[in-house]
Amino acid sequence: MLKMLFKTVIANMRHVQFWKCHLRLPWLAFLILGFAGILPLTSAQAGTTNYYVRGVLKAVKPGEHQLVIAHEDIPNFMEAMTMPFRVKDPAILTNVAIGEKITFQLHVTETESWVDHIQSFDTSQSAASGPPTLSKTDFEPEVKTNSAATVGSQNPLRNYKFTNELGQQVSLSDFRGQAIALTFFFTRCPIPEFCPRLSRNFEEVERKLRTMENAPTNWHLLSVTFDPARDTPEVLKAYGASYQYDPAHWSFLTGPKEKIAELARLCDVKFDPDNGLFNHNFRTLIIDS
């Protein structure tokens, strides 16, 4: 009976935490953690791009210094969707009202982003329905300790054929005997602290293992989209190419939304198909199969 043991790394914006579980091949987890550490957020202002944006404030998260905003399309950067945005000035968090229509400035560097200059604006300046939001996703993992998620050998999802970026049918059982690092993402996320950071970590792990002398070869990286309506195999392949991925060791998977939701649940990742919010923390599962 093949037993798949998960080791979860939760790399928030400032730190990394472990889920403890048995792992016979710890080197992949070590590399994931190592590169999460060498790709920190910075406060450098050089190369900052600024955007003027309109939206509706959906939530305030004081503990995370975030505002959740349903924003309109940001030309040449980001489609209309609902996303959490970081604020640097904590006073902003107490000077806004949920449901308020606002304008704000979004500042983006290579490694971080934040919003400020938040102001209310006349509702007549926007569409009566407000800015559109993405549908059917909520990704907010619950942090637990001394726990491990397991996909048992009797679980039919092990053998379910997802579709990779090459249009090929693959299942988790195809990677039997390999150490797997698996994460969830979506290609339209341009916020540097979120999906791009996860992908940069994988890119660095792949580069390091490729150049390491006598490096193990029984490993594979899996990036699973939770935006399957937009992330087709062609889109995923182009995204992978932007990170110089090697399809022999890194795959981008898509599939029916209900199967992705089931996989997320088995990985102990909350996935609410009715919330309409892409809101996710870092979570990479290290699987010793």
CATH third-level topology of the largest domain:
Glutaredoxin
Q: Work out the radius of gyration.
A: 19 Å
| Uncertain stretches of 5 or more adjacent residues | 1-25, 34-44, 125-153
Strand content: 25-35%
The SSE order reads EEHEEEEEEEEEHEHEHE
Q: What is the CATH architecture descriptor of the largest domain?
A: 3-Layer(aba) Sandwich
> What would you give as the CATH superfamily of the largest domain?
Glutaredoxin
Question: Major beta sheet, specifics?
Answer: 9 strands, mixed
Give the structural class: alpha+beta
Distance between the termini: 11 Å
Number of discrete helical segments:
4
The level-1 CATH class of the largest domain: Alpha Beta
Number of domains: 2
The overall pLDDT average reads 75
What is the strand tally? 14
Write the topology of this structure.
Blueprint: E1 4-11, E2 16-18, H1 27-38, E3 49-61, E4 66-71, E5 81-86, E6 101-108, E7 113-120, E8 150-151, E9 162-164, E10 169-170, E11 179-185, H2 195-211, E12 219-225, H3 233-242, E13 250-254, H4 257-266, E14 284-288
Parallel strand pairs: 11-12, 12-13
Antiparallel strand pairs: 1-2, 1-8, 1-14, 3-4, 3-6, 4-5, 6-7, 9-10, 9-13, 11-14
Helix pairs in contact: 1-2
Keywords: Copper, Disulfide bond, Metal-binding
InterPro entries: CusF_Ec (IPR021647), CusF_sf (IPR042230), SCO1/SenC (IPR003782), Thioredoxin-like_sf (IPR036249)
Disulfide bonds: 189-195
What features would you highlight for this structure?
17% helix, 2 domains, alpha+beta, elongated, 4 helices, Glutaredoxin, 9-stranded mixed beta sheet, copper, OB fold (Dihydrolipoamide Acetyltransferase, E2P), 14 strands, 289 residues, 5-stranded antiparallel beta sheet
